[in-house]
Amino acid sequence: MKNDLIIWMQTIDLKKHSGGAEKFIANIARKLIIADYKPIIIAANDKLTIPYIEKYLHENVQLKIIRLPRPNIWILGSFIYVLLSIIIINIYYNKIKVVHFNSINHRAALISFFSRIFKKRVILRSNGGDSWFINDKLSKNNTFTRFHISMLNLSNKIIVQSSEGFKLLKNIGIKSNIIEKIPNGVSINLYNDKRHACLSDIIPELKITNDTKIISCLNGLNRYKDVDVIIKSFSQLNKVYINTHLLIIGDGILRNSLHKLSQKLKLNKKITFVGNVDNPADYLNISDIFILASNKENFSNALLEAMACALPIVVSDVGGNKEIIQHKNNGLKFRVGSVSGLEKNLKFLIENEKISNDLGLRARASVIENYSLEEIFKKYEKLYYKDVFKHQAL
Questions:
Q1: Per DSSP, what are the bridge partners of residue 343?
Q2: I need a surface site. Which of 82, 111, 261, 276 has the fewest CB within 10 A?
Q3: What are the residues facing 179 on neighbouring strands?
Q4: pLDDT tens by residue, 131-188
Q5: CATH class label, 189-370
Q6: Do domains 5-185+373-393 and 189-370 have the same CATH topology?
């Protein structure tokens, strides 16, 4: 094996809960190692330390992560991180030909600009939030943002996960011929279509019976996820179907305000704030229905995971959700922000158990057919090494 790929990330912490983008890239790195490549991950350490190597066992495969300092000292922290990234990627590892940047933010754009000068193959991956941020800045006629876009246009390829992502990048000035659409994927074998036999094994403190309908959402608690819409909708649903319980899996800056909302609606015993977890599949496998209510969504890994568990799905009709879910075929959709629309769909699933089960099975089938990590990995492998290496020669 040889060091033949660098993956640059904002940050990654696989020992704690990682976001969907970080988890997906860790899975890609794992698949690369299994395929006899040797990727190097570069990520930030939010302290002023010397660079160091961290080795982490991810699903029985050891990942190599180089931690570079990015102290929380205003602009100085970013400057240190960018400078060291440029040196490590382009000088220390000068023989490595391929660099994947798991972002299109200003740091990734600047570092990738130098990588192109050093004649490396540069692949960037948009994660949604960075595209929305650039678009907002561009609408204010920001000169720095236009320079940012010009640096991005020097890359070999920019990966997006959805058609909406493709359209957004094109609209902000990215050349369409360098945009490559590759959706996220999940390891199907990590998920099953059987509800967990014993609820108390997963959440011992949850005093509910196995015949309770468990509704779950799995996402960050931020302004994009509209978890307040889920809570308000559940409040109305629970008045009719009292044998229901809501699991809110994930954490974020809105946790306290969402907790206060649940208290105000007198749902303390009907809603459980689970927080971040290392094993989301266990929580999905005790659930009966999955909700994703985002007002903006790129391409949700959590949604794919829930579908792989054969859960009946209810999603907002936005972003990547629109591509993944076909209404009444492999899930149900509702208008963004509509409390009544979400409630109506939840009632339908509870009242029509056979249809609900069929929707779940079709959801799993569509993930197996379209979003298997094994098939998605082949697309990344081809993109990374096109015109650079032939794998047989390694």
A1: none
A2: 276
A3: 158
A4: 777 777 766 667 888 899 999 999 999 999 999 899 989 988 999 999 999 999 998 8
A5: alpha beta
A6: yes
Tell me the C-alpha distance between 127 and 299, whole Å: 8
- Centroid of chain to Cα 51: 27
Tell the CATH topology of 5-185+373-393.
Rossmann fold (3.40.50)
Q: How far is CA 58 from CA 20, 21, 64, 101, 227, in A?
A: 15, 15, 10, 20, 30
Q: In this prediction, what percent of the chain has a pLDDT beyond 90?
A: 69
102 vs 91: CA distance, rounded Å: 20
What's this model's pTM, rounded to 2 decimal places?
0.90
Q: Where are the domains of the chain?
A: 5-185+373-393, 189-370
Alpha helices in the chain (DSSP H): 20-34, 74-87, 106-117, 129-139, 143-152, 163-171, 199-202, 227-240, 255-264, 280-284, 301-308, 319-324, 339-351, 353-370, 373-385
DSSP 8-state class, residue 173:
T
